[in-house]
Amino acid sequence: MNQTARIISIYAADTSGFCSALFEYGGMSVIHDASGCNSTYTTHDEPRWYDMDSMMYISGLTESDAVMGNDEKFVTDLVLAAEELKPEFVAICASALPAMVGIDMEAIAYEVESQTNITSFEVKTNAMQSYITGAGNAFKELAGRFTRDKMWSPASGDAELKVNILGLTPLDFPLHGTCEAMGEWLKSNGLKVNAYVGMHPVNKDANDGEEGNKEKKDTHNLDEIVRLTDANVNLVVSSVGKPLADYLYEKYGIPCVVGTPYGKAFSELLVEDLKKAAVQGENIYSAKNRGAADSNIVVIGESITSASLAAALYHEKGKSPRVLESVGDGDMNVLNGPDDISCTEEDELEKELSKAETIIADPLFEPICNGKKFIRLPHSAFSGRCFTREEMNLINTSLDKLGV
């Protein structure tokens, strides 16, 4: 049967991506769904609960309210909560039931904003897509409401280049150390982080904007969304950041470089591409900069991070794995030739994996790898909190630890 997983897991849903994207921005994020589901969307897919609080709620939708179209109850609850909590914004999204019965979420957001004067908006979800769609839509909606209107101009002279890092969420990256490693990597190459979009370093420093040192738990980072247009170039480190990069390019002309800074050699290539894009104003898909695929090695996962790992192994080890994009709604532009494919069906994955000798993937893929050499690379969006102690931070560091 198609679209059936007998053995492997499934990826976090778009509603989880919505929660992850907006977690650190001081807004009130509400999923329109039945009571009791909040832990699925937030607690199980969101490790930041251990370090900081966020206004993440669920509407407590009942069957009778859904069938009878009682939207007034949801609007009233939203208005009362917003007036009490005074969030920076109110964001709402739909689970499967509101999406199926056609509840007008955009109209509900309009009503809330009209009654509270607090910026309110809908993020398109239906609980049937992956976290990439939910988070990507959330970032784009957030930028559409708060980003300063300022057109891009080419970088010139020896001015320090400002970089937005787009697509950082703990669904794709280890929570601890990723942001700090990316910031240090850019700083060591003479570049400045203008904004981290998604998650942020535990402690801000001078490379992090004008805020000075603050503890992460006390920081609302909406100011970084406001100043996105101050950047010379965007670095898209996962598919979650691509819709926002497209929006910033189409509206303000800010170019992007697509790739995750894995390994030393590929990270150096990314720096050169960032400098080039900042001057030329053209988007660069650095993750495609790799040789012909070696069918003996396969990387499974989200498209940009997987393609970037393949590129990093090519530039550091002379090996170029095939990429099997296994989420289904990532950025497919980074797939390189006929050997890289989007492969979301379990039966199809098993067939493709039978051709390989070495497989790099989340541990929950191992049961369908039939005794192949398996390199465990946990992906929180796929296996949740099961393997957090095995997570590897590969940002601008040697790939020897992979053992490829």
The portion of residues assigned to helices is 25-40%
Radius of gyration: 21 Å
Provide the low-confidence segments as ranges. Answer: 206-219
Give the mean pLDDT.
92
Strand elements, count: 13
Instruction: Give the SSE string.
Output: HEHEHHEHHEHEHEHEHEHEHEEHEEH
* Shape designation: globular
Strand order of the largest sheet: 11-10-9-12-13
Strand content: 15-25%
CA(first)-CA(last) distance:
34 Å
Structural class: alpha/beta
- The count of helical stretches stands at 14
Q: What does the largest sheet look like?
A: 5 strands, parallel
Describe this structure in words.
There is one protein chain. With 404 residues, this protein is of the alpha/beta class. It is built from 14 helices and 13 strands. It has helices at 14-22, 38-41, 63-68, 71-85, 96-101, 105-116, 131-146, 178-188, 222-226, 242-252, 264-280, 303-317, 346-353, 380-383; strands at 28-32, 55-58, 90-94, 120-122, 161-168, 191-198, 233-236, 256-258, 294-301, 321-325, 341-342, 358-361, 373-376. A five-stranded parallel sheet has the order 11-10-9-12-13, with helices on one face. A four-stranded parallel sheet has the order 2-1-3-4, with helices on both faces. Helix 4 crosses helix 6 and helix 7 (131-146) packs parallel to helix 10 (242-252).
